[in-house]
Fold:
Amino acid sequence: MSKSIVVFLTLGGLFALTHVFATITSLYWYYPWFDVVMHFWGGLLIVLGVRVLHHLQYVKKTNKRTVFGIALLMMFAWEVFEYTIGFVSQSTYLFDTIKDIFVGGLGVLTGYLILKQKNKSYE
Structure:
């Protein structure tokens, strides 16, 4: 198993456990900044996930358009999921969604630039 797969599975598992813990203990409501951290982390994970899919040859190209296209679809899907399960406040939904996508996008951009720097073929 490649290093990127192990890192992705480890960070993804920690992300999931952190999200469950934060939901059960209401961290998202006590510390509003915690949501920002999780969306940034999620953006990083999306890029790493695309890298893993590329390594496994499920994604042929890992150019900017592919990475950001997949990321945008996943971020919108997550926001629809949050809305569907009632995980958002109706009064701040639009602002929160824009903020979440922006912060997730910063995570994607950061992850993309890190991987591009480490691996010149990740263009």
